[in-house]
Amino acid sequence: MISHRASKSLYLQVLAAIVAGVVLGHFFPLTAQDMQPFGDAFVKLVRMMIAPIIFLTVVAGIGKLTNTAEVGRIGLKSIIYFEVLTTLAMLIGLAVGHIVAPGQGLNIDPATLDKAAVAKYTSAPHMNVADFLLNVIPDTIVGAFAKGDILPVLFFAVLFGIGMAHIGERGKMVMHVLDGANDALFAVIGIIMRVAPLGAFGAMSFTVGKYGIGTLANLGLLMACFYITCAVFIFGIMAVMMRLAGLRLWPLLRYLKEEFFIVLGTSSSEAALPSLMGKLEALGCSRSLVGLVVPLGYAFNLDGTSIYFTMAITFIAQALGIPLSWADYALILGVLLLTSKGAAAVTGGGFITLAATLSTLNGKVPVSGIVLVLAIDRFMSEARAITNLFGNSVATLVVARWEGQLDMAQARKILGS
Questions:
Q1: Rounded distance, CA 64 to CA 180, Å?
Q2: Domain ranges, residue 179
Q3: Phi, psi of 407 (to 5 degrees)
Q4: CATH number where 47 lies
Q5: CA dihedral in degrees (144, 145, 149, 154; nearest 10)?
Q6: Which residues of the chain fall below pLDDT 70?
Q7: What pTM value is reported for the model?
Q8: What gap in Å lies between CA 16 and CA 12, rounded to an integer?
Q9: How many domains is the chain built from?
């Protein structure tokens, strides 16, 4: 883990890098676009560490359990929590989109939409429930790590951890080696975090330089609605969940400020996943629980993405002057409850999910309508990623308290609450 002094220095450096990126992108857009490799390199460095950290954390945690049924119980409770919160997030996004109606009055002719701009999303195959579940099982053990997909690695790690628990004393030497390797990986994460300011600078420079701050003005109301809705969800719903866990939200947000700025700069919640796992463990959550709940959350508990889906669909319908009935809204919600779970599994999954959902409305809203939100998606991704980050942090604490695997004295000492 990074020391407190280094941690404070890091988030100030990342914040300064984000500001510098915005300035460079605004005044020197062409130069700013050349900064993209810095952002991409940082995200790749972190993603390189995710699979081995999840594997070692889960195996080391489960291997020490005397009751392996505990793994299934934690997983089930996590899934229940995720489903309730993501459904609530979708309903809130649907309600705000319907009441505020940010697309009302644009009166865009569907015939003028650029279908070529969204061809790669509309033509891409979207996984159904069966495909998604089968995709969790890797073709090979090596393939799970080579692809870097979270769920296949988690699946194998759980099986390996249970196997370690079953061999008892014979696994202790292996467990000692795995613990040491896990500590070494988190030390590497500490090294990688030192270049986080450079990564945030590169990503923010490219975004502002390529798309321009002026892009925000065109669809400003939708942007404002989305950001405000995410803020209300964080400070409203998540605050209530933290209270139910016996803690307060604001101290947790302060505790995760480094992760917040890293996600803000890179627009990727995955960029903060390894350090988030380390911090939640330091906060008093058991290692095995963190290793299970956090990776599961990154696949099933995307609160910010859930808000975005329903709000984007209502915006597209309003912008095209297409009225939606309550039956349509119910259908959208029902389809998204299934299709959204695969959104994190493929590149561009968000737009593929939007396309798949619109296609279920029997042509009422043209799939090509997603071109209307393409221009500002890069700017909206920050709010999605930040909401997802905090959502999974709160989920881990709630499930840990639910399971009796949260050291409340340690959590209150660190959070000061």
A1: 15
A2: 4-415
A3: -75, 95
A4: 1.10.3860.10
A5: 70
A6: 1-8, 10-11, 63-68, 105-133, 148-150, 168, 211-219, 338-353, 356, 359-363, 374-376, 378, 417
A7: 0.75
A8: 6
A9: 1
